[in-house]
Design brief:
Helix content is 59%, strand content 5%. The protein contains seven helices and two strands; from the N terminus they run βααααβααα. The longest helix has 30 residues. By secondary structure, the chain is mainly α. A two-stranded antiparallel sheet has the order 1-2. The relative contact order is 0.20. It is elongated and about 60 Å long.
Amino acid sequence: MTKLPLENGDDTSEPLREVMARISSELIDVAQLIERLEPLLSNGRSTEFLASPDHMRVMQGIDLAVQKTHGLADFLNGIGERLEPEHLIDITTALNLITLEDMKRRLMASIHETSSAEAYQKASGDLEFF
């Protein structure tokens, strides 16, 4: 399990602009994961399927989700760039709410890992159904 700064007795304050940049990076990662769904829904299926209004709504919904996610990432990044470096924040409580360990590690200060989108590109194909 990942040790948070507070659990190690370290100072938990860090620049908010860096936290916002990491959140922005996670949102870009989410957008890339969503974008990978699009080819699965239009990979040479019948023209009837591709012309279906329901299918078109799904494709438009995926496209909208990608655009919104990129927009939120850019928004957070833009705000973060305008923050003063000395504006500090403690994200320990917020990190404890995240259940995905790899995301938690990427959001922690000074932890640099491969994004989910890159990791899944290289994955063996294992899938766990809930």
